[in-house]
């Protein structure tokens, strides 16, 4: 199997797996006062520091609260933001479902919601953002690197617009963490996930700037500074920390490797159009379109290649990608698009082989149409 779906999830790093294995047997509750508990607690503390350092917060500008993943973190960020006097959220049409669905759920509960359009290249319309963000806005929610088309949104500019009105900026940095610089200085809340950086599934984090007085999301035992109750998993935390530290150490080498794969992809898929801005983007995400091709059929035919037509969260819905439709693509064009995601463990040989098979299958479809 050739794996080209790195935006959905990434292979577990051997180093993360090695760090996790001892904690299958070390069963102490990290919130217990005895030695086993203290050992587990110390391991989680070290892991949390590793994650914060990889985010660029080695000096403690904020608090890192471990969550079950980004969906929980995004829910917490949006719901917490409108717990006060301000009751307006501004977000972008190409956001992940965990943001859009939460925002729409809040809109049904008397929260004002503005969903900003994007330009044809997938970048937010900053003029529309400036008009929408006002003194009633509690939160501006924007994804750093889009999970479907890989474009990098202007987070600093959005944050400036938000902060001028007293609003907060929440950044879903899942696809950028460990790959590009995170704009922590511009953000008030940031969500990240372990399994997108070669860590385990089931753990992520919400970073909150220190000055924020944030409402608890889960009540119970008062763990994690009283903000998120519940017994933490040392194994998952340690895996997260190891993966984050490794991503930080390897970032330059990983970046060079992905850049090389991206250049190769341009040569291998010359008959395909690139969806999204060709420059302001993360190179490991290639959303490609070949008009007349049925992407779902292509995926089903090529069972030895793992790739997708968009977000894994929405892949079973049968609907065309909301991200591609937001770019102005027609429904047939959206259904003719595929997403190829590659990363640390992808080889050039794998990409060449996958491209040959994909191109052959696409050409057969067009010939028989």
Structural summary, described in words:
By secondary structure, the protein is of the alpha/beta class. It folds into 2 domains: about 1-10 and about 250-369, Aspartate Aminotransferase, domain 1, CATH 3.90.1150; about 15-245, Aspartate Aminotransferase, domain 2 (3-Layer(aba) Sandwich). About 40% of the residues lie in helices and about 15% in strands. Strand 5, helix 6 and strand 6 (about 170) form a beta-alpha-beta unit. Helix 1 runs antiparallel to helix 7 (about 235-270), helix 2 runs parallel beside helix 7 and helix 7 (about 235-270) packs across helix 11 (about 350-369). The protein is globular, with a radius of gyration of 21 Å.
Task: Report the order of strands and helices.
Answer: EHHEHEHEHEHEEEHEEHEHHEH
CATH fold group of the largest domain? Aspartate Aminotransferase, domain 2
Strand order of the largest sheet: 2-8-7-6-5-3-4
Helix content: 25-40%
Question: Biggest sheet, in brief?
Answer: 7 strands, mixed
> Tally the helices: what do you get?
11
Total domain units: 2
Please give the number of β-strands: 12
C-alpha-based Rg, rounded: 21 Å
How does CATH name the architecture of the largest domain? 3-Layer(aba) Sandwich
**What's the pLDDT, averaged over the residues?**
96
The fraction of residues assigned to DSSP E strands is 5-15%
Low-confidence stretches: none
Q: How far do the termini sit from each other?
A: 28 Å
Write the CATH homologous superfamily of the largest domain: Type I PLP-dependent aspartate aminotransferase-like (Major domain)
């Amino acid at each position: 199997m050739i794996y080209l779906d790195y935006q959905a999830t990434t292979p577990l790093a051997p180093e993360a797996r090695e760090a996790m294995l001892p904690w299958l047997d070390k069963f102490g509750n990290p919130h217990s006062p005895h030695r086993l508990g203290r050992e587990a607690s110390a391991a989680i503390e070290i892991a949390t520091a590793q994650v914060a350092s990889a985010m660029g917060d080695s000096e403690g500008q904020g608090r890192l609260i471990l969550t079950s993943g980004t969906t929980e973190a995004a829910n917490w960020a949006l719901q917490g933001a409108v717990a006060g006097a301000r009751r307006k959220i501004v977000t972008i049409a190409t956001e992940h479902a965990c943001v859009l669905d939460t925002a729409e759920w809040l809109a049904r509960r008397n929260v004002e919601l503005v969903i900003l359009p994007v330009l044809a290249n997938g970048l937010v319309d900053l003029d529309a953002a400036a008009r929408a963000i006002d003194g009633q806005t509690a939160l501006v929610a924007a994804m750093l690197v889009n999970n479907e088309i890989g474009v990098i949104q202007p987070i600093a500019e959005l944050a400036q617009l938000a902060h001028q009105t007293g609003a907060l900026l929440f950044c879903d940095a899942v696809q950028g963490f460990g790959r590009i610089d995170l704009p922590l200085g511009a953000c008030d809340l940031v969500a990240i996930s372990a399994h997108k950086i070669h860590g385990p599934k089931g753990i992520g984090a919400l970073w909150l700037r220190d000055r924020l007085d944030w409402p608890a999301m889960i009540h119970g035992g008062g763990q994690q500074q009283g903000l998120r109750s519940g017994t933490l998993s040392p194994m998952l935390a340690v895996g997260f920390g190891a993966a984050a530290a490794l991503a930080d150490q390897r970032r330059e080498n990983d970046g060079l490797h992905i850049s090389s794969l991206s250049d190769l992809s341009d040569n291998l898929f010359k008959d395909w159009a690139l969806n999204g801005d060709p420059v302001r983007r993360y190179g490991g995400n290639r959303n490609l379109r070949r008009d007349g091709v049925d992407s779902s059929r292509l995926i089903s035919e090529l069972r030895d290649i793992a790739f997708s037509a968009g977000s894994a969260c929405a892949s079973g819905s049968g609907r065309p990608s909301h991200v591609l439709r937001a770019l102005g693509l027609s429904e047939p064009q959206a259904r003719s698009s595929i997403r190829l995601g590659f990363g640390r463990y992808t080889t050039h040989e794998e990409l060449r082989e996958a491209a040959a098979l994909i191109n052959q299958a696409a050409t057969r479809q067009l010939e028989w149409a």
